[in-house]
Design goal:
By secondary structure, this protein is α/β, with parallel strands linked by helices. The protein folds into two domains: 92 residues, Ubiquitin-associated (UBA) domain (Helicase, Ruva Protein, domain 3, Orthogonal Bundle); 218 residues, Vaccinia Virus protein VP39 (Rossmann fold, 3-Layer(aba) Sandwich), CATH 3.40.50. It is elongated, with a radius of gyration of 22 Å. It binds S-adenosylmethionine.
Amino acid sequence: MSKGLQYYANGIVYGQKSGMTIDIESALTTTAQALQSVSDSPRLDAELLLVSVLDEPRSHLFAHPDEALSTEDAVRLSALVQRRLNHEPIAYLTGEKEFWSLPLMVSTATLVPRPETELLVAATLALIPRDASMAVLDLGTGSGAIAIAISSERPLCRIVATDLSSPALTIAAANAERHELTNITFLQGDWLEPVADRTFDLVVSNPPYVAENDAAMNLLRCEPRIALVAGEDGLDAIRRIAADAGKNLLGGGALLVEHGADQEEAVAQVLADEGWDNIQCLPDLSNLPRVTCALWKPNEEGQEPVGLRTHLLRQQATNRLWIK
Ligand SMILES: C[S@@+](CC[C@H](N)C(=O)[O-])C[C@H]1O[C@@H](n2cnc3c(N)ncnc32)[C@H](O)[C@@H]1O
């Protein structure tokens, strides 16, 4: 037990039994100290945990720093701190994570949506004119983060979101309902298998892309392995998607896939081998190559039914790919 935790436990849990109380500000300070060893943002973690325990908005913490915690709340906070010290992500402890400014429920069946994935959303939105009713497929939807973000910005689109994990889909559907989004259909199955007979204008995915023996898995042990690991080199899921997604795309349609910062060249090769063209990798805000976009061949008549390719090329020409 760390020194910080000892102080925390003595100050809150046992201290209250002997008649001591702790106020909000002291609880935050003590909790942040206890979490220093496991978090880059211990104060923020402390605030999020306390807000979740109190079931109050974050502003309550700043408006009422002197308010005393009840014994029950102090004990619940202490239990969450213990779990955080065991490296559980804050989002699993609070049951929620914000993505694209939308609060989303998460569980241990879903990946915790990452800020990096918002770049995949931004790149996708750049390809969908505001008034377009394109058909969009989100493969491996998890909590529904990508599909829900796109749906919230492009309500005229028809979105299908798939996942192999039924528990993840239950969470995703609940998130869509929570945000009153009715243009997403959730389907369970192995990558494109549930949509074998459908065509789309855009396919997007943040698939698992961590290599089996990657040391990073030690830090990610609370999240579902199926959401993270994709074979020996981390590319198995991207290979499956690259091989199959073209069959479901209207000619000229686009695939956007997130991947590791060190996978740019390998992903481009996989896509080229499967016949994709106009392959380009988009940098994130740290200038790391994280999202690759590729176009499927125009259909046999050479028509591009949704004008997506034209739209994309125009966006590229004016260097506006990242603008919503
Ligand atoms: C990296 S997570 C992405 C989750 C979510 N889209 C996000 O960005 O937060 C990958 C997702 O792919 C799903 N998945 C893994 N293997 C799959 C498969 N064979 N078919 C469909 N989905 C799969 C996992 O269950 C997980 O939800």
